[in-house]
């Protein structure tokens, strides 16, 4: 199971990183969402895996690690707030400039120059 | 009053002027004055004890492991400086109230001033050299703000930057020196260091430490060759010049030399570095001062010269000279602050500080003239004023002080310095105030109101009082201070008449020659102007320009504004660092056995991996990308269920729903596809970076999961205490609302802020401007649905709403013992409400509920906070919860915990933030021409066909 979790985290990280390196706002947002999954599962998994042992106190059983779960729970909710905020910023900059390009001058898209600049200032 | 409190008072007080400026300028100045007066009172209350020779200390342990403690002590030296800083500070606050014009932001000024004051008081009271360094840097930063206060003046900005660069760089050198010193002694406590003279002076590291510390002191006190920043700092408003550049900040360097005198002084190295620097500075700056036409520049160079004089006295390394240095610090503070303020008055009234455009002001400004006369005569060293007393003593100390075996050099140069001092002091009086009244002043001058001249007049009165009765007025203070400097009982005997000693003749020569110089000023000035001089600013700029170019080219290459570039560099750096750590460390194989893989989870894994891999290929189709994200999120949730984390699964799946809805709504206004832009090479490069990151993270977590904890985990504590200490069996929830309630409180505050920022963003977009125009002209790029509010969906969501809310309440209530809690309940209720919006339209749904989401966020945070405060009333620390078991008829025994109140706060904040975010997008849609429906359905089932046509 550890191998499956680790490979999933690895692939989600790779996918998230690749999308974050794109030059349009929307893939970057999706990439950040992917990285969020990867990071949350990473933190969760650092409490080690356990099957069928939820951290609900019963009589004398062993439990999964509650601490990493508590950390990740708030992280999931906060990451929703952050995603919502970034989405609105991306939407705002697209509506303001008519462009969702976020590269710079040397990135071989001459037409997008002014738009990209304004975004950088905003 | 505790010394720590005295040092903290100005910092705390710095919050007040900014607030009280709304109540008017007088209120603002008064409260600033009160803060300073309170701190001064605190110092004065300790004064009797200090005058008896006691040392007051305050010790607060902060980071004992690093030797960094907030320890303060007050001895004679600290008393003198704290008194000067706060006393003159009070006068400056009064003066600034009338000096600043109505256009200047006064609240800002007083806030900066108090910050600076706090930093200065901190320096002179610190007993820990690390703490002292922190305050030292704070004075550089706050003086930067003060010098550049008039942001519209380029000279102000450049002067501020130059001052910060020079004093900041000096501060860095001093940090190194102080650390060496602390290392030699083995303690960072000043009181300990001061008792280890022999240890320090015998160390091989004595000279490096000495030089580094002196660089810090010399830059701060504007000693040659670092003197050039001070005249440029004169672009500051005059109250700042009077405060920072005459009375306090530039004296911080002197303070440090005086403070370190017992352990650093007395060696030939000290003598040749300090005394020589002081001597050169004194003569050079006095000469330049004579040829400056700007009143403040003249005073600036004169300050540099007098600081040189004091440095030289400290450099002599004899006890007598140290006593004179202390006395001159007091005298210089009185007459120089008075002169700066008077120069400010002249500038304020005539609108010029150029001496060549002034003259004859004696009749027009008699009060100012009197103040300047007294102070300038003292500066020139004319009996019986206080400047005379210390200058005579200085000349006396200079006699027979051999320099490289030559007994003439120092006395002669000291006399020449005194001569220039006489010349520029008299020039200040005669060229500004004497002579005929002119008719070409830029403004018609007259004496200002009492408020402006009260402070300098008070100082001028002090000049006379100290001058006439030195032993009565300051004799005791000088004695206590000097004793603190030399670390032994100081002998103080100040008198006007020493007999026909060499110092008297030197003094007479200085005055005579100075007057001759002044008489010949016109011709000398012509020669001065004709000879080329090094321009400090140009040299400084020439040094700075290449540095700026280099740092700019590095910054531009790393941070050119492209997000992709930042991200790539960051990822590469992290992966490389991790790889280095991996290859350079040692590691053993994992000890845990792998958990078995069952078929069903394996299928889930295949789905997850498949969806993720497809994202690489299909991310350009944005809608498909969202669907794939949904699949991945679902699989992650299922994974949480399987891996014993029911709370996480519930949270993840509800957040997933909200996130996908939000992204779908946003996508409505964004392009539906991402074009192919990057070259294949670039995509390959990104792929390699991403692959590296994925491999690294995957390998790391695999290695982590296959090993046991290196240290015992604190999870055991939470598991053991959840039921007995927190009263709940769901440990995750108890951690959230109880053990780590403070963290959760912070997190809901962040969530609430995110919600409100989203609202503000939309508000700003819709207020007008290009975004608003674009929305008004919006044409949908996709086909619209024929029936936007289908009957089936509307009816279904109505049915679901009460059930969903019931589920929310249930999840909320059971959260303490079973999976659930405020976060999840909040998300469930928010989604149920959003369903109504989606089914019947935003307008229709919004008209039927009167919930203000802002208020909801606010109440959530307030309730959670009050729940924490409530534990104070039970005499327990913040956010301590309590619980009990109750029995009501007909139902079994149940538990009530105060944590549930906290959870209500969490619930409200989550609902408010989620709803505010989604409602904000709806507002954009309405602006883009989305019709607001008043009926629940577009097609009314009971509507007759003809009636529809009639509409």
UniProtKB/TrEMBL annotation, chain A:
Q: How does it sit in the membrane?
A: Multi-pass membrane protein
> InterPro entries, per this entry?
CPA3_antiporter_subunitC (IPR050601), NUOK/Mnh_C1-like (IPR039428)
- From the record, give the transmembrane residue ranges: 26-51, 71-95
Q: Which Pfam families does the entry mention? A: Oxidored_q2
- Please provide one cellular component term from the Gene Ontology annotations of this protein: plasma membrane
Which keywords accompany this UniProt record? Cell membrane, Membrane, Transmembrane, Transmembrane helix
* Subcellular localization(s) per the UniProt record: Cell membrane
Report the domain of life of the source organism: Bacteria
Query: NCBIfam families from the xrefs?
Result: PRK09094.1 (NF006573)
Family affiliation: Belongs to the CPA3 antiporters (TC 2.A.63) subunit C family.
The name under which this protein is listed is Multisubunit potassium/proton antiporter, PhaC subunit
UniProt organism field: Pseudorhodobacter antarcticus
From TrEMBL, chain B:
Location, primary (coarse class):
membrane
GO MF, one term, reads: antiporter activity
GO cellular component entries: plasma membrane
Domain (MrpA C-terminal/MbhD): give its ranges.
607-672
NCBIfam families recorded: PRK12648.1 (NF009288)
NADH:quinone oxidoreductase/Mrp antiporter transmembrane domain ranges (all copies): 126-404
Q: Which InterPro entries does this UniProt record tie to the protein?
A: CPA3_Na-H_Antiporter_A, MnhB, MrpA_C/MbhD, MrpA_C/MbhE, ND/Mrp_TM, Proton_antipo_N
* Domain NADH-Ubiquinone oxidoreductase (complex I) chain 5 N-terminal positions: 66-109
Query: Could you state one GO biological process linked to this protein?
Result: monoatomic ion transport
Q: Where is the Na+/H+ antiporter MnhB subunit-related protein domain?
A: 793-915
Q: Which residues cross the membrane?
A: 72-97, 109-125, 131-150, 162-185, 205-230, 270-290, 297-316, 322-346, 367-388, 408-429, 450-469, 500-520, 563-582, 602-618, 623-643, 649-667, 688-705, 748-766, 791-813, 819-839, 851-874, 894-918
Keyword presence, Transmembrane: yes
Q: Where in the cell is it found?
A: Cell membrane; Membrane
How is it placed in the membrane, per its record? Multi-pass membrane protein
Q: Say what the protein does.
A: NDH-1 shuttles electrons from NADH, via FMN and iron-sulfur (Fe-S) centers, to quinones in the respiratory chain. The immediate electron acceptor for the enzyme in this species is believed to be ubiquinone. Couples the redox reaction to proton translocation (for every two electrons transferred, four hydrogen ions are translocated across the cytoplasmic membrane), and thus conserves the redox energy in a proton gradient.
User: What are the alphabetically sorted keywords of the record?
Assistant: Antiport, Cell membrane, Ion transport, Membrane, Transmembrane, Transmembrane helix, Transport
Name this protein carries in UniProt: Multisubunit potassium/proton antiporter, PhaA subunit /multisubunit potassium/proton antiporter, PhaB subunit
């Amino acid at each position: 199971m550890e191998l499956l979790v680790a490979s999933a985290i690895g692939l989600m990280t790779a996918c998230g990183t690749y999308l974050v390196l794109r030059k349009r706002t929307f893939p970057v947002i999706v990439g950040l969402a992917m990285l969020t999954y990867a990071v949350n599962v990473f933190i969760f998994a650092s409490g080690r895996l356990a099957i069928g042992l939820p951290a609900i106190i019963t009589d004398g059983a062993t439990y999964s690690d509650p601490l990493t779960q508590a950390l990740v729970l708030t992280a999931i909710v906060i990451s929703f707030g952050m995603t919502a905020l970034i989405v609105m910023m991306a939407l705002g900059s697209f509506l303001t400039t008519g462009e969702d390009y976020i590269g710079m001058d040397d990135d071989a898209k001459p037409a997008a120059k002014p738009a990209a600049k304004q975004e950088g200032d905003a | 009053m505790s010394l720590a409190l005295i040092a903290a008072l100005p910092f705390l007080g710095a919050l007040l002027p900014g607030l009280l400026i709304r109540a008017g300028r007088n209120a603002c100045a008064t409260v600033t004055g009160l803060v300073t007066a309170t701190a001064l009172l605190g110092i004065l209350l300790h004064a009797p004890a200090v005058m008896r020779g006691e040392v007051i200390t305050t010790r607060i342990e902060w980071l004992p492991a690093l030797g960094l403690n907030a320890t303060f002590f007050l001895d004679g030296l600290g008393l003198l400086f704290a008194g000067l800083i706060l006393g003159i500070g009070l006068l400056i606050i009064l003066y600034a109230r009338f000096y600043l014009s109505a256009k200047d932001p006064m609240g800002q000024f007083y806030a900066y001033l108090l910050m600076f004051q706090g930093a200065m008081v901190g320096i002179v009271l610190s007993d820990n050299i690390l703490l002292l360094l922190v305050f030292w840097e704070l004075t550089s930063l706050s003086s930067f703000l003060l010098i550049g206060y008039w942001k519209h003046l380029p000279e102000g900005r450049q002067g501020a930057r130059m001052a910060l660069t020079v004093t900041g760089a000096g501060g860095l050198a001093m940090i190194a020196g102080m650390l060496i010193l602390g290392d030699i002694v083995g303690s960072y406590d000043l009181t300990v260091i001061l008792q280890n003279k022999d240890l320090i002076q015998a160390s091989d590291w004595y000279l490096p430490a000495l030089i580094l510390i002196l660089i810090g002191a010399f830059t701060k006190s504007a000693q040659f060759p670092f003197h050039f920043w001070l005249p440029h700092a004169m672009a500051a408003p005059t109250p700042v010049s009077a405060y920072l550049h005459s009375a306090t900040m530039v004296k911080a360097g002197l303070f440090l030399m005086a403070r370190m005198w017992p352990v650093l002084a007395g060696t030939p190295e000290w003598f040749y570095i300090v005394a020589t620097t002081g001597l050169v500075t004194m003569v050079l700056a006095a000469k330049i001062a004579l040829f400056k036409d700007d009143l403040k520049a003249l005073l600036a160079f004169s300050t540099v010269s007098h600081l040189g004089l004091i440095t030289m006295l400290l450099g002599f390394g004899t006890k007598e000279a140290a006593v004179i240095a202390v006395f001159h610090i007091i005298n210089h503070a009185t007459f120089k602050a008075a002169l700066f303020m008077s120069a400010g008055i002249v500038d304020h009234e005539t609108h010029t500080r150029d001496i060549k455009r002034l003259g004859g002001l004696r009749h027009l400004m008699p009060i100012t003239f009197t103040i300047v006369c007294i102070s300038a005569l003292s500066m020139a060293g004319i009996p019986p004023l206080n400047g005379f007393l210390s200058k005579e003593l200085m000349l006396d100390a200079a006699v027979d002080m051999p320099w490289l075996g030559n007994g003439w050099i120092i006395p002669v140069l000291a006399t020449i310095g005194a001569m220039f001092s006489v010349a520029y002091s008299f020039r200040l009086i005669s060229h500004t105030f004497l002579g005929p009244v002119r008719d070409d002043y830029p403004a018609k001058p007259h004496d200002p109101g009492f408020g402006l001249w009260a402070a300098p007049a008070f100082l001028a009165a002090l000049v006379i009082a100290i001058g006439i009765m030195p032993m009565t007025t300051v004799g005791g203070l000088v004695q206590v201070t000097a004793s603190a400097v030399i670390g032994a009982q100081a002998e103080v005997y100040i008198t006007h008449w020493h007999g026909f000693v060499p110092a008297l003749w030197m003094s007479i020569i200085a005055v005579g020659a100075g007057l001759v110089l002044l008489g010949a000023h016109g011709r000398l000035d012509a020669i001065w102007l004709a000879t080329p001089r090094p321009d400090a600013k140009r040299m400084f700029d020439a040094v700075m320009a290449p540095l700026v170019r280099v740092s700019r080219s590095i910054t531009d290459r790393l941070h050119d504004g492209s997000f992709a570039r930042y991200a790539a560099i960051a990822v590469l750096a992290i992966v490389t660092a991790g790889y280095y750590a991996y290859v350079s460390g040692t590691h053993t194989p994992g000890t845990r056995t792998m958990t078995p893989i069952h078929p069903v989870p394996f299928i889930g894994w295949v789905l997850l991996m498949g969806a993720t891999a497809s994202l690489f290929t299909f991310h350009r189709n944005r809608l498909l990308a969202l669907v794939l994200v949904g699949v991945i999120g679902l699989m992650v949730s299922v994974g949480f269920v399987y891996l014993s984390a029911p709370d996480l699964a519930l949270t993840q799946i509800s957040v997933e729903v909200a996130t996908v809805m939000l992204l779908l709504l946003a996508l409505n206004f964004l392009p539906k596809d991402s074009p192919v832009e990057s070259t294949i090479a670039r995509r390959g490069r990104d792929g390699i970076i991403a692959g590296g990151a994925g491999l690294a993270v995957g390998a790391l977590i695999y290695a982590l999961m296959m090993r046991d904890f290196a240290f015992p985990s604190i999870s055991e504590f939470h598991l053991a205490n959840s039921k007995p200490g927190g009263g709940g069996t769901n440990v995750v929830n108890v951690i959230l609302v109880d053990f780590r309630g403070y963290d959760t409180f912070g997190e809901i505050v962040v969530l609430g802020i995110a919600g409100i920022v989203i609202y503000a963003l939309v508000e700003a977009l819709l207020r007008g401007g290009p975004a608003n125009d674009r929305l008004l002209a919006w044409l949908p790029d996709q086909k619209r649905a024929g029936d936007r509010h289908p009957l089936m969906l509307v009816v279904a969501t109505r049915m679901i709403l009460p059930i969903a809310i019931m589920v929310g309440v249930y999840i909320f209530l059971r959260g303490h013992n079973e999976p659930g809690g405020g976060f999840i309940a909040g998300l469930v209720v928010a989604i149920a409400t959003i369903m109504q919006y989606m089914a019947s339209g935003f307008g229709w749904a919004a008209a039927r509920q009167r919930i203000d989401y802002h208020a909801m966020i606010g109440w959530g945070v307030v309730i959670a906070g009050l729940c924490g405060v409530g534990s104070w009333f039970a005499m327990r620390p913040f956010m301590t919860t309590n619980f009990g078991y109750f029995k009501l008829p007909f139902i079994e025994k149940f538990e009530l915990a105060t944590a549930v109140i906290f959870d209500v706060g969490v619930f409200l904040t989550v609902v408010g933030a989620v709803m505010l975010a989604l409602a904000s997008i709806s507002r954009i849609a309405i602006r883009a021409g989305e019709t607001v429906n008043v009926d629940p359905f577009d097609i009314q089932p009971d509507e007759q066909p003809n009636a529809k046509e009639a509409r």
